[in-house]
Write a structure and sequence with these properties.
The protein is mainly alpha-helical and about 80 residues long. It has one domain. The protein is globular and about 40 Å long.
Length: about 80
């Protein structure tokens, strides 16, 4: 969330602070992906923070087929991931 919506983590201010929070979010996603390479959600979110690659497209495709089991009942999270 910090990488996607960094402005939620500080009270305005400089562009440097925005970039700092965005980078913290990206680093958290990278660590999460490294800690559990089989976590498709973490991998997809991390890959989505950089230039979109074929690896990102494949991860999104695999994740989309698992969303209904990960987030049943049309939750806001499931709807969000279906949109991306």
């Amino acid at each position: 969330m910090a990488s996607t919506l960094p402005y939620l983590f500080y009270n305005g201010g400089s562009d440097d602070l925005f970039i700092e929070w965005e980078q913290k979010g990206i680093e958290m996603l990278r660590k999460s992906s490294d800690l559990d390479p089989n976590d498709l959600m973490a991998k997809t979110l991390y890959l989505g923070t950089s230039a979109h690659s074929s690896e990102y497209a494949e991860a999104k495709k695999c994740l989309s087929s698992q969303l209904s089991s990960l987030f049943p009942n049309e939750t806001a999270v499931e709807i969000y991931f279906k949109d991306i």
